[in-house]
Amino acid sequence: MTLDAAQEADDDGAIFSILQEIEQWVLKSCQSLSQDLRSTSLEQKAKGTLHDYLFPDTTTFQLVTINDQTELRLQETSLSYEPMIQRLSTARRNIPVFRPSEIVVVSQLRPSRVLKVSVNNAVMCCKLAGPYYPDLCRELEVMQHISDVDAHFTYNIPRMRGFVRSEDGPGVIGFLMDYIQTTHKSPDLSSRESIRTLAESRRKKWVSQVEDIVRGLHSIGVCWGDAKMDNLLIDLNDDVWLIDLGGGRTEGWVSKELQDSKKGDLQGVELIRNFLSTDKLHQSTI
User: Fold this and answer.
1) Residue 190 has what pLDDT?
2) H or E, element range at 27
3) d(CA 195, CA 277)
4) DSSP H or E stretch at residue 177
5) How open is the CA angle 62-63-69, to the nearest 5 degrees?
6) 228: left (phi over 0), alpha (psi -120 to 50) or beta
7) Measured between alpha carbons, how far is 103 from 170 in angstroms, rounded to an integer?
8) What is the dihedral of CA 48, 243, 161, 167, to 10 degrees?
9) Nearest CA to 242 among 280, 214, 207, 284?
């Protein structure tokens, strides 16, 4: 599938996959010169403060094709660098606010806008606004709504722990939430072969927990949105956590016409139930 086709189909998963392929192709083309200049990799960049991460030292190159061969050329004049930050709505409620210079980046998690960070020696997950997260405003609103009913909401959804404010103004550029600790022994939930090796009792437990969490979200008027296996985590207690409340959908999990609806959530949960089954598990309803 081409990028244009993925965008036309509104397939978030395919779009991200294609962008990753493009990134890897460019990085491969840049590898030799990058090593010579000792430029930082994504993992190396993910050190220091969040401000350092957003405003790294930048060198500008031009990727050109000569005789069907790609090569990287250093630009004599660097272009001005503008970090891809989208300012969100102003924070509400009595939720702590932090500037990027107060947040230490530990590592990069999912795409480059989801980070493991340390704030006042507490490990958290930081999610930033950017061009690949057009629905972050939606997730921010959902997280705040869950915070409003937190005393009555006991399901495994990461809670918001703070806002990230622009270094030079009052605008909110992201938020902090619970970091869900996993281990190297946590199962690969995206691999059906990996799932098949697990005890049926564990898989049944996870199905039941996913159903309970989605039921809990619906009870407070919230839809999960992008329901799929990739948006589940298994913690140190072998319990399921549901992540990514930004909405949207992934082709093959939720139909376009059911996007961001309770019916869409139920469709995704049904497919998750089937994915976790090596045989016919009990078909419960939520």
Assistant:
1) 80
2) helix 12-37
3) 8
4) strand 172-178
5) 145
6) beta
7) 16
8) 40
9) 214
